[in-house]
Amino acid sequence: MINVRNFFPRYFDISEENGIARYVQCKHVSVNFSKLETTDFLWKKHDTAIQNMKLCDIEPEKSLLDLKIELASRMFRECCFCERRCKVDRTKESGNCGVQQPAIASEFLHLGEESVLIPSYTVFFSGCTFHCVFCQNWDISQRNAGIFIEPAVLVKMIRARKNQGARNVNWVGGDPTPNILYILETLKNCNVNIPQIWNSNMYCSMETIKLLNGVIDLYLTDFKYGNDECAQRLSKVDNYMDIIKRNHRIVEKNGEMIIRHLVMPTHIECCSKSILQWIADNISNIPVNIMGQYRPDYFAKKYQDISCSVSSEEIRTVEDFAKKLQIICL
Ligand code: SF4
User: Fold this and answer.
1) In the chain, which ranges are E strands?
2) Which CATH architecture group holds 101-324?
3) pLDDT of residue 144
4) Which of 77, 99, 204 to mutate to test the pocket of ligand 1 (most atoms within 8 A of CB)?
5) Is 80 in the pocket of ligand 1 (CB under 6 A)?
């Protein structure tokens, strides 16, 4: 029996009011910057501030969070939030993810996440940086269905949900990556001490990884494929392995983490085992949630290899392999 507290000490401390959420700390780091300064110069200031994390007693006139918002608004006008790097001006158009302005498809107290996370105040954004042919949330991930909620209004909802027992705010979709500017702006208005969870496919750019650092308390990552061919064929995404490995290596150091892996039929050797082997070789002491609920949805029936549900034997094979590698499974 594993003691989950050992893996998420910071998360538990914040939830129990014995610690401060990172985004709140970020608002107490003073950074003197001007909108006239170049983006390169602002990144240098950002990186120095993150390294030092010198907290002031009261909120400064300009904080590290303000600097992150300035950098994110520049990225928004030439979008590079994810590694598709569409470079579109999101004030005028959308890129590959289909998201221009944020649309929230639903928000509620989620009881179906990992036990350590529930009840989780989950905010589902429409749109996604991936186009998985088997997506079980395709009605929101592949369409821009939803409503814009003013950041100040969402803050009130966060406060109300915390009062109802929410242990965290869980930013998800689709994928939250296209909405990082909106999320930072919401947190600027927020003073609720509650852990922030980044629930994502982790295809974000290095710049986004840096924006998240100092803001996110727990990364809930989705490691789908063990090679680029499967990623390209089933999610229409390039250079998957390099980007996902890079981002996992970095966020492991930036916060606490749970890695999710959805087992897919016939993808045991090429994907599941390959991912677990990489985790065992490269990432230490991070719990993995091996998920067995795959069912063919959306266009999956058109792809023979994933056109049926995953078998209990396949799931057992993956679980046994994880055990052999001494991976901690949630
Ligand atoms: S977030 Fe969307 S618009 Fe921005 S780079 Fe990624 S796919 Fe393109």
Assistant:
1) 104-110, 120-125, 169-172, 196-200, 218-222, 256-262, 288-291
2) Alpha-Beta Barrel (3.20)
3) 80
4) 99
5) yes
